[in-house]
Amino acid sequence: MHENQSPRQEGETPAEEVQIALIAAALDRWYADMGRQFGPLSRPQRRMLRLLSTDTPVRVGDLGEQLGLTTAGTTRMLDKLEGLGYALRSRSEQHDQRQVYVTLTPQGASALQEADQVFLARMHTYLRRLSAEERGTLADLLQILGTQS
């Protein structure tokens, strides 16, 4: 077995294994083609700011957990985003002073909006190769996959 192949799941046929490998390879290529930078934000920074784009402050620990980052990784990214003026850390006076919360600044909201526009422009470029029916099918399938986590 090659190192990039996963072991066959119980009950999976060789044809299904090949199909899954082809899907995985296509997603890897697409992910790489989309790029790492979206306007002023890297892909991970965009994900973090998206999580901060709620009306309530987010606990630093919760943010790191949702992003799958270590405490050190979360802190490094927040240091960078705070240095750019995109995020602001604070402690709640009404709650546990040990907990650090993060909010999105107006500059962060603007950077996120710009990054989203770049992302959507790239999506349009890729998805216009598909017919309206194919885009609908893809949207349905991605919705199914997104609700299975």
UniProtKB/TrEMBL annotation:
Residues annotated as domain HTH marR-type: 13-147
Gene Ontology biological process terms from the UniProt entry: response to stress
Organism: Dictyobacter kobayashii
GO MF, one annotated term: DNA-binding transcription factor activity
Pfam family for this entry, one: MarR
Top-rank taxon, per record: Bacteria
Protein name, as recorded: HTH marR-type domain-containing protein
PANTHER family for this protein: HTH-TYPE TRANSCRIPTIONAL REPRESSOR YETL, TRANSCRIPTIONAL REGULATOR, MARR FAMILY
InterPro entries: HTH_MarR-typ, MarR/SlyA-like, WH-like_DNA-bd_sf, WH_DNA-bd_sf
PROSITE patterns: HTH_MARR_2
